[in-house]
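Minutes, project huddle
Topic: does the predicted pose make sense with 3-acetylpyridine adenine dinucleotide bound?
PN asked that the exact inputs be recorded in the minutes so nobody has to dig through chat later. Recorded below.
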Amino acid sequence: MTSQTDQQTLTELVSDRAALLKRLESADTSPLLMVLVHLGGDPAWLGRIAPHIKGPWSFHDETPETLKAELRTAVADVLEGYAASGHPLPLTPPKELLPAMLNACTGQVVPPEYYPLALEELDLAQVDPKTVKWRKEPDAKALSDFKVLVIGAGFSGVALGIKLKQAGIEHVIIEKNDEVGGTWYENTYPGIGVDTANHFYSYSFAINDDWNHFFAKGPEIEAYIKRNADINGIRENIRFEEEVDSAVWDETALIWNVEIRRADGSTYHTSANALVSAVGQLNRPQLPNIEGLDSFGGPAFHSARWDHSVDITGKKVAMIGTGASGMQIAPSIAPVVGELTIFQRSAHWAMHNPLYFEKVSDAKKWVLKNIPFYAKWFRFQLFWSSSDTFHDKLRIDPNWGDSARSLNADNAEVRKQLEAHIAKEVNYDPELIRKATPDFPPYGKRMLRDNHWYRMLVRPNVELVDLGIDHIEPGVIVDKGGNRHEADVIVMATGFQARRLLWPMNIVGRDGATIRERWGEDDPRAHLGITVPEFPNFFVIYGPNTNLAHGGSAVFHSECQIRYIMQALRELIETGQDALEVKPEPFWDYQDKVDAAHRGMVWSHPGVTSWYKNKDGRVTANSPWRLVDYRNLTETFNPEEYAFTSRADVKAKEHTA
Ligand code: N01
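Predicted holo structure (tokens), as shared on screen:
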């Protein structure tokens, strides 16, 4: 239950007061307090409980049991009051209380610049504020003549499909797999899961109060995407097992001509007015270039192409790579395999979170489902817990003394806590501490969740090798120290070709410009991460400089991009223009701003090597912005930053020529 609770449901909810009070025992204090103040409007409760909420996670709550019991009673009272009076529940809390509520909800100070974002994320009035509405009834022909081709039916492609359908814009989604889900369909490695809390890592327009875990495993997320595709009838627009080979902009017709390859190798052509890439940055596996890999002889596969026909039980498994994927795989397979040898090129930081392994109890699910507004406040609390509060910890303080190990005082404090965690988890083994502790500041690479990685390292059947791989021979991996490690299976958790964004597609824009020429092998750039000069009516979701590495949720980011793209499409359809193209000035101005911002962030730190940077050291993958900044940057499509063309203009030009 969220907001538009009908009278009958409310009456049922309060019909057994004792049962309701019992059920409320499973509620977390912070969102329950928000429900009370929202519905009851009494700020005194904030004053009483807020001092006990020490931070945004439920485990930061130190409210005494007696006070919690009072809170539950008050919530029951207020719900009973509404049930008895027949008054509808207010959709929004008293406006003047919102700042104090947000602060109490998160146990921190939420600055005013976050209020619009908070209201949007909370969507208390249930109007889906990120959905783009027509400003005037679109001309029927203009609308029916306009077609969008979306590449990819993953988390973002499905969301865009939903928004296009709602707007009545004709579209087709080309998906290379035989199912929706993208990343969550392709990655099936043991332990696959998300490290952003799911009640936030999900569509803002499809809040799910049924997650089984606070950090769900892959199949549950895949099922969520499928469910949303089904509920919204998205499948009928998807062409499965087809891949876009090339897309060429027709400068006369002002359309994209797209060549598509079917699974059987045959091809066909189609056209679209607008082209949207929803393939993301992490779609094409990066295989390591190691001498002799081809001669290994046994099964060797990438983490995103897990070969389930290979039984690893009791086998000698070698895993290369210790990033987000490796960190989930190794602890999941270590108890099953005979020996696990992990080849680590660099150690990664991983943070402990007490909720990481916790299941959402049925009792908690009941609260999420049935207590009005609770799920929304819970989502906002998680947004805050996982997002911009970390950003300052990633900024380089030019006067900081210990600059090789940390960036600033906050960052140093994080490092201290992480080091203490590692030491405890590896039983204070000095050799393991040395190997497992990164030599760069925290957040230099994605901060991982400790998936029992460190305690896995002390298992007798696990060896962590940090000498680097020299070469591979049949059945053996030889490290740079000359040590020979026998292996039956190699797992390559070696990441993706993020810098070669959109590869292997051939995208050809105006005047024959190709994306590969413009971006090279490793320098993708786009205005707001979305649009590219010389490539009219072309949009990228999860494009250059939009990867989130300080916190937040990729879903949040893609929703910002989708809103912007939908506004751009609206601009075309409503104004009768046929093409839009970002002007060079705003594009380059944005590039300069991104680069300048990155110079002060951890990813530019000289001690950090990662796929975030290209060979020239420019950070191409990550967003330097806080979520609130990016939301504000993309909130409103600015037509002044774009050049518009119509077919009539083209004809007139041809005529003149
Ligand atoms: O890939 P990675 P990933 N020889 O690039 C090493 C998302 N994700 O698949 O650190 C030896 O992070 C490489 O070493 P180094 C998330 O956005 C999310 O793990 O470069 N080693 C590194 O250790 C993430 O950021 C989730 O020195 C080689 C590892 O391989 C992104 O996907 C789960 C090597 C690659 O790590 C990518 O994560 C999974 C070589 N030749 C993924 N080449 C969750 O939400 C590379 N490495 C939980």
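Observations noted during the meeting:
- Residues 4-110+366-385 form one domain.
- DSSP finds 22 helices and 21 strands in the chain.
No decisions taken; revisit at the next huddle.
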